[in-house]
Amino acid sequence: ITIPNEWEKLAPINIGWTAGIESDKVDPIWIQKASLMDKILVVSNHAKFGFDKTSWNGKNSQGDMVVLKNEVPVETVNYAARKWDAGDIDLDLDYDFNFLAVAQWGPRKNLINTVKWFVEECYDKEVGLVLKTNIRKNCMMDRIETEKRIKSAVSKYKDRKCKVYILHGDMKQEELSALYEHPKIKCLVSLSHGEGFGLPIFEAVCHGLPVMAPDWGGQCDFLYAPVKSGKKIKMKPLFSRVSYTIAPIQEFAHWQGVLHPESNWCYPEPGDFKMKLRDMMATHKRHLKNAKKLQKYVLEEFDSEKQYKKFADAIWEAIPESSSNIVKVFG
Known about the structure:
The protein is of the alpha/beta class and 331 residues long. It contains ten helices and 15 strands. The two termini are 21 Å apart.
């Protein structure tokens, strides 16, 4: 249970479990390490796509041209629904309508643009953006640096009406629930370039909070729900979709052995994001209605007992019949 770079053949049967990748291709070392596994489990269909569709051209030790491609079976088992009883949280918010972003401050999460584009759109509006974020740690030095970065991002907007708030430090699960369910928090925003799954988005859905995000990445597994259309039932998006383009990851985001320079991820469109902010504020009741439908579906479909059974079955199916007697001793 780790990043695939670290997978090793440790036992007669080896199963690798990973959140996968946020871009559209897995690194060549991941495919090499995957060959040591008997099965791979991932948390989203986006991650499965990365393993199944990636191929790299190269040369073997004899100098012959070869195509490196994963041959190990990959199965998706999503996370189980995460919803806790709300505790107490004291938020001093000036306005009744606030957006929420929950993400670590880094290249992939795209928070700098989230703040910038929010302020540009809501410059003269009585609306807020609450950022639950940090850079690396939850210590005081990290808080000071986080605050410095956010102040720098908004410094040129001197006379703005809109507010940007920082939430920094450890939060209990009950406090997070109170954040998602706070009467002044109206929508979770995510403009990340990619998600292996997207737990904060998932948690917001589980608590019935409307979501605004690109229609790309791991979050697509749980942002759609069956909706009756005439005589047919179709899976439809029950969230506010932000338009995007797919392009190579930025040079500063390259991460050797993880985010390959030749991979791509999504770039949310600033103009469409601003339009979606406007629409969310104007028609929030409609979005809230969709969010409640999505919440009901996700809490049922991603029920913990269902997901744990899927996980157990996925592992059991990877065990050869010749090993079944050994397994039964333990199970």
